[in-house]
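Weekly sync, protein design subgroup
Attendees: M.S., D.O., the rotation student, P.L. (late)

Item 1: inverse folding check
M.S. brought a backbone from last month's batch and wanted to see whether the design step gives back something sensible before we order anything. D.O. pointed out we never logged the input encoding, so this time it goes straight into the notes. Structure tokens as presented (481 positions):
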């Protein structure tokens, strides 16, 4: 793909209080692995404490409606790095792929070309393999100290602060031992309210808090270096929590993530913004903040103007929706092609409309462990853990059957949720007569948005998305214990 540069602006406007513009900002992008909304104390989580995320939010902007492009590690991270929707990334649209190095503009590489010291610590792009000279997130450093040791004095830097938290596996009981009360955890109503599940969520919370401490350590270090004021500091997650009907799904539990952005020198503090944001918007934002031209191929839209404003609530009227979707997560279908469970969806304030491209397939992978044991693909699109196990073992219970079906049962081709009365997206009203008009309007709007963004599922060149080799192992290997 040709790199067409359209120079947006150079760093020019004055700083806060009319102060003269300063040096180009540093960029720190902190991303947790499998951390979903609303699991931060800034969003009101009753049990999980995230003082460092909260500090970024209070020093800058807390975003209420941030969504990933795809609820799977590799495509979500590829979309962030390229500022483009996952479905434009060819092999990069699926988990565990060969990264199409050199085909797409990558913000870390563009910053390196502009003179930034660029690198990553812990999980950046992936899982997958790249043939490029450098990983898409920049050179991987074994420590944050090592990253700064290679920086030239005064050189602006761009650090990808990764984490493997709160990805599974968890240490059983770690949450409660760390003081997280299982009775108080945020429990989505699609999950059973039983001690096993509450404990599992507390253990997830333990790892969220560990990530938050990593963020705090780096912020403290930047403060000691005198660099915190002129750093664009972003904290988010790559998709929702690794629980049934969360990660890998296009409901809020899978695609909605925490997001806070601060830049004390330039961004007015203490604001809450409700604009709909796709994490594809971050690459253009970072480039604009650094005074680097934004490639026209990036479908994301810069948040820079909103960051520099003092506005709150819905700042830009056109940011009233986002689109997202998925291709193959883990190959988990009991079918020869094993191409995954492709989905596209659109989310507005009031509705979520979902298009399941292959409702004949299993959304979380086939549940038939006897025929699939040898291939290790039992419910493989959902990470193994105590919550999945509890649902499996109680799937025939009268009180559990419906919950099990929400997570693991087959779905219909189209789903519509009225968030005004069903905020947790549990009751599909797509076929109810009173919703026909809304359903058709959202379906049309989704198709238009996908066509505009060049989605091969709409434009018809499916070979771009399918048939790529899966380079990983099984996600839900049987036996499950
Ligand atoms: Ca992840």
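Designed sequence read out in the meeting:
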């Amino acid at each position: 793909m040709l790199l067409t540069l359209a120079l947006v602006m150079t760093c020019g406007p004055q700083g806060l209080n009319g102060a003269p513009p300063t040096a180009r900002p540093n960029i720190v992008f902190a991303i947790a692995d499998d951390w979903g909304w609303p699991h931060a104390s800034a969003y009101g989580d009753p049990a999980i404490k995230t003082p460092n995320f909260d500090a970024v939010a209070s020093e800058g902007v807390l975003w209420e409606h941030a969504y990933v492009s795809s609820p799977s590690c590799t495509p979500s991270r590829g979309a962030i790095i390229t500022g483009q929707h996952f479905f434009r990334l060819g092999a990069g649209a699926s988990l565990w792929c060969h990264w199409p190095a050199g085909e797409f503009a990558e913000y870390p590489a563009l910053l390196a070309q502009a003179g930034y010291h660029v690198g990553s610590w812990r999980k950046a792009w992936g899982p997958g393999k790249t043939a490029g000279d450098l990983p898409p997130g920049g050179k991987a450093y074994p420590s944050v100290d090592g990253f700064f040791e290679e920086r030239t004095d005064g050189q602006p830097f761009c650090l990808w602060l990764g984490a493997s938290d709160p990805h599974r596996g968890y240490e059983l009981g770690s949450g409660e031992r760390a003081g997280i009360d299982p009775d108080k955890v945020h429990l989505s109503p699609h999950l059973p309210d039983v001690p096993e599940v509450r404990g599992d969520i507390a253990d997830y919370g333990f790892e969220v808090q560990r990530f938050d401490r990593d963020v705090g350590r780096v912020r403290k270090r930047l403060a000691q270096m005198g660099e915190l004021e002129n750093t664009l500091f972003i904290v988010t997650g790559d998709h929702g929590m690794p629980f049934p009907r969360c990660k890998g799904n296009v409901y809020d539990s899978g695609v909605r993530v925490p997001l806070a952005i601060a830049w004390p020198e330039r961004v007015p503090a203490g604001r809450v913004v409700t604009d709909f944001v796709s994490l594809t918007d971050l690459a253009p934002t970072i480039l604009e903040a650094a005074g680097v031209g934004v490639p026209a191929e990036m479908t994301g839209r810069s948040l820079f103007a909103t960051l520099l404003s003092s506005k709150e609530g819905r700042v830009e009227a056109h940011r009233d929706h986002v689109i997202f979707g998925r291709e193959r997560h883990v190959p988990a279908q009991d079918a020869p092609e094993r191409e995954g469970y492709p989905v596209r969806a659109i989310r507005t304030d009031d509705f979520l409309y979902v298009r399941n491209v292959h409702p004949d397939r299993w959304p979380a992978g086939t549940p038939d462990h006897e025929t699939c044991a040898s291939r290790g693909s039992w419910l493989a699109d959902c990470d193994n853990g105590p919550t999945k196990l509890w649902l499996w073992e109680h799937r025939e219970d009268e009180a559990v059957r419906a919950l099990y079906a929400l997570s693991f049962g087959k779905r219909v081709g189209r789903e519509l949720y009225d968030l005004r009365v069903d905020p947790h997206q549990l009751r599909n009203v797509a076929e109810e007569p009173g919703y026909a008009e809304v359903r058709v309007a959202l379906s049309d709007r989704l198709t238009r948005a996908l066509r505009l963004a060049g989605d091969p599922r709409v434009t018809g060149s499916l070979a771009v998305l399918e048939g790529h080799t899966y380079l990983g192992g099984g996600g839900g290997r049987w036996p499950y214990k």
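Discussion: The longest helix spans residues 195-225. The CA atoms of residues 69 and 324 lie 5 Å apart.
Action: P.L. to compare against the previous round before Friday.
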